[in-house]
Structure formats: C-alpha cells, structure tokens
Design brief:
Helix content: under 10%
CATH superfamily: RNA polymerase II/Efflux pump adaptor protein, barrel-sandwich hybrid domain
CATH topology: OB fold (Dihydrolipoamide Acetyltransferase, E2P)
Strand content: over 45%
Number of helices: 0
Shape: elongated
Number of strands: 7
Distance between the termini: 7 Å
Strand order of the largest sheet: 1-7-6-3
CATH architecture: Beta Barrel
Order of helices and strands: EEEEEEE
C-alpha cells in the first residue's frame, strides 16, 4: 500500500530531501516549501520506502494539494 504526501499550501519548492528508494521513518522531513518567505516542512506520515518523488528542488508556483511524494508502507 502506498501513502501519498501532498503539498499543504501553494508555494515554491525549496528543498527535496528524499529520492526513490530511500527509507523514511514517520516524522522524517521529506521536503521543505517556501511559503510567503517562511519554510514549511512536509513530513512522512508513516514509515516506509519512498516510491516516487513528483517535485523538484527550485520548482516554483506549486499549487496546494499537489501529489509530491509516494511512500510504500509494509
């Protein structure tokens, strides 16, 4: 089963900290968005292996609720 991590709000992608194949724990930061000059961390809701990353560092004009990362949980 895969868990989808979506952007919480519109903004720019500042840092992407994971890539496909990475193992993550619940609470690990997956990526950081810049929203109105503030950093907004998006964390893994569950432990698993990153299946896909749909955003890139430096990407601008990202909409809210965009599928950003998929995590395969066991």
């Amino acid at each position: 089963m895969a868990v989808e991590v979506r952007t919480q709000t519109a903004g720019n992608m500042w840092k992407v900290l994971v890539k496909p194949g990475d193992t993550v724990s619940a609470g690990d930061t997956l990526f950081i968005m810049e929203v109105m000059k503030m950093e907004l961390n998006h964390d893994a809701p569950e432990a698993g292996v990153v299946k896909a990353v749909h955003v890139t560092e430096g990407q601008e004009g990202i909409d809210a609720d965009l599928l950003a990362v998929e995590i395969e949980i066991s």
